[in-house]
Each structure stands twice: as C-alpha cells, then as structure tokens.
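Narrative of accomplishments. A recurring question from our advisory board has been how the design workflow behaves on a single, concrete structure rather than in aggregate. To address it, we present the structure tokens for one chain from the evaluation set, followed by the sequence designed for it. No filtering or post-editing was applied between the two.
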C-alpha cells in the first residue's frame, strides 16, 4: 500500500516513516508547512528533512510555497484555535496531493508528538480523506517520540524548539508573568 506522509521536519520523520514501513506501507514524503516562522526556520527544517530523506532513500515531494500570509489570514483573531486551522491547511493539502499523485493513503508525522492534539488531527484527516477520496491512516506514534529524539540527536540533526508558528514561538520563549 502506498502512503503519502506529511512531514513537518526531519526529527519527527525518523521513527514515523520507520513505523509506517513496519506496518507495510510504501512511503512517499510530502513537505507542506506554511505555518513555520521565520523563513530561516522554515528553510532549516526543510534542509534537514531533505538530508534525512536522501540518506534514507525516501522519495519526498516538496511544496516550497512559503505561504505564511495565507496561514496568518486563517488564524488572525482566532489564535486560540490556531492549531485547528494549521492542521486543516496541511492535512487537506496532503490529501489533495495524495489524490493527484494517485496515492491511496495519507498520514502525518505530527502524530509522533505528544504535544499535538491527536483527536483533532484525526477528525480533520478523516474529513480531508472524504473530501478528496483517499484514506487517512491514524497511527498513534507517540510511543516512538523518545526514540525519534534519540535518533535525531545521534545523527546531529537540527532540532527545533517550538512547533513552528509565530504563536508557538512566542509561547516557547516569551513567558509572561
């Protein structure tokens, strides 16, 4: 079975793609992350992912539109629900790409993070699957999170310290009293 795996970064891809391979999927990666800010961070994550995919011989499709403005238009004045819009943008785009590439299944490396809302990702993934006529594969990858951290450190991969958007960067670094 073929699966298009939305990839947010190299470190999250390490154990994610291995697990989907173990489950019998033939993986192609897809990088579409208009939420990542600033641009240098976006480029660094993409570079790290490309290096990892080359090393592991993973085919990756890259949507290199840096459409930060589109992401911000979606979330402005709805910052408390920003993840909903972010997941929606990325998973719908991945489902649409899977359809275009004639790939029957899709999923996301976001599912490795214990910090992401798995229920919301699943709901949005299933909605996108229905909309584009493909299958969303939910796999709870959180048990592999620590292993992915270990692998990325062993391989001296760039590891980001926040989810990606300007709001998560603020949450990470600006602790207001």
């Amino acid at each position: 079975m073929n699966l298009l795996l939305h990839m947010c970064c190299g470190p999250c891809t390490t154990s994610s793609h291995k697990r989907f391979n173990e489950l019998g999927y033939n993986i192609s990666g897809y990088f579409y992350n208009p939420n990542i800010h600033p641009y240098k961070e976006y480029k660094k994550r993409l570079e790290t992912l490309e290096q990892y995919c080359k090393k592991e011989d993973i085919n990756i499709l890259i949507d290199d539109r840096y459409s930060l403005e589109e992401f911000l238009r979606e979330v402005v004045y709805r910052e408390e629900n920003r993840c909903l819009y972010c997941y929606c943008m990325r998973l719908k785009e991945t489902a649409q790409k899977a359809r275009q590439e004639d790939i029957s299944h899709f999923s996301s490396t976001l599912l490795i993070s214990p910090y992401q809302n798995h229920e919301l990702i699943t709901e949005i993934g299933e909605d996108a699957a229905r909309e584009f006529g493909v299958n969303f594969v939910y796999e709870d990858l959180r048990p592999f999170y620590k292993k992915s951290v270990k692998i990325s450190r062993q391989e001296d991969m760039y590891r980001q310290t926040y989810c990606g958007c300007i709001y998560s960067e603020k949450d990470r670094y600006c602790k207001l009293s």
